[in-house]
Amino acid sequence: MDDRRDSLLLDDQLCFALYAASRAVTGLYRPLLDELGLTYPQYLVLLVLWENGDCPVKDLGAALHLDYGTLSPLLKRLEATGLIRRERRPEDERSVRIALTEQGLALREKARDVPPVIGEAMGLPPEEFDALRAALRKLTSSVTAYLG
Questions:
Q1: In terms of domains, do 88 and 134 share one?
Q2: Strand blocks (E) in 8-79
Q3: 44 located within any domain
Q4: For residue range 92-128, what is the model confidence (pLDDT) as tens digits?
Q5: Taking every annotated instance into account, which residue ranges of this chain make up the domain HTH marR-type (predicted)?
Q6: How confident is the model at residue 2 (pLDDT cuts 50, 70, 90)?
């Protein structure tokens, strides 16, 4: 039986296929996001805020699978560019909410051009795109559960 999961060949590694695909897709985003003045992680933060509105840093980190130490510098840079503001809650000084500024809200319209370009470049029919996204979500959930 040929079980490629036990192989030490680079091309048999799922982790390498994921890594290479991630680098390719992130590279695809780079010139589009450069036009918006954003990095890929900053774009992800804005996607969450555009979808959900103001939210606590904790919820933002959970949505993006990022810890506070990684998220905090990202938020500071977005605040420095005038796209978001951090607000301490009066009833709990430890809790910080992230809110979009007018500039951050306005950027959403310019960003609407990004997903169609990415989708076209991926070259996947809608059903394959949906199946791949579902498989990756399942993989993420399984590995996260395994790690505890």
A1: no
A2: 55-56
A3: yes
A4: 767 889 999 999 999 999 999 999 999 999 999 999 9
A5: 11-141
A6: low
Q: Looking at the domain assignment, is residue 1 inside a domain?
A: no
Region at 129 (left for phi over 0; alpha for psi -120 to 50; beta for the rest): alpha
Segments forming the whole domain that contains residue 125: 113-148
76, pLDDT greater than 60: yes
The letter for the amino acid at 114 is: V
- The first and second tokens of residue 11, run together, are 């091309």
pLDDT digits (tens, 9 = 90+) for 84-93: 999 987 777 6
Evaluate if residue 71 carries a pLDDT over 90.
Answer: yes
Sequence-separated (6 or more) residues with CB below 8 Å from residue 125: none
User: What's the number of domains the chain is made of?
Assistant: 2
| Cα→Cα distances 42→16, 38, 57, 84, 113, Å | 25, 6, 14, 11, 17
**Residues 98/55, Cβ–Cβ less than 8 Å:** yes
Q: Do 111 and 43 meet the contact criterion of CB atoms below 8 Å apart? A: yes
